[in-house]
Amino acid sequence: MSAPPIALSQFLYSDLNATTAYLTPFVYDSQSIKQALDNLLNTRKGQRIFNIDYGTNLESLLLRLFGDDTALLIRKDVYDAVTQFERRVSVSIGKTIVTPDFTTGTYNLNMPGTIAGLSPNKFVYSAQLIPPSKLAA
Fold first, then answer.
1. Would 54 be classed as within a structural domain?
2. Strands 14-16 and 122-129, how do they pair?
3. How far is CA 135 from the centre of its chain?
């Protein structure tokens, strides 16, 4: 069963659905932005051949000593990557929060911002950042 056709002109942003393309082939507007942010934060700097600056240093930061100091470095790295590579959103480093969760050994990212051209334009990107050692366990 295929999805009914959607007129793309009713959306400002659209992208191919990276997770469930067999159900819904496209994501739109805020979902498109969220998917782009997921891709950005999961890409290591140097991983893209023709754009080696694209991405973050999260993987190496997540290997550092767990705590508040590392959370601040993660916040800066995420903020710098988003402001440089995702021009459709505007975020504030003062409102971006990375909190270490000492019970799970992970970091919680909460990044509010606005999306250019959308109404309502406010969004919050949230993610749980899991160190590679926790993924292997």
1. yes
2. unpaired
3. 18
Do the beta carbons of residue 88 and residue 116 sit within 8 Å? yes
CA distances, 55 to each of 40, 47, 104 (Å): 5, 8, 25
Name the residue range of residue 53's domain. 13-136
Residues ≥6 apart with Cβ < 8 Å to 22: none
CATH code where residue 73 lies: 3.10.450.40
Tokens of 126: 């949230």
Q: What percent of the chain has pLDDT over 90?
A: 64
Q: Which two tokens stand for residue 1?
A: 């069963």
- Cα-flanking dihedrals φ and ψ of residue 39, to 5°? -65, -45
Is 69 a member of any domain? yes
Give the pTM.
0.84
The secondary element (H helix, E strand) that includes residue 40 is helix 29-41
Per-residue pLDDT tens over the stretch 56-92: 999 999 999 999 999 999 999 999 999 999 999 999 9
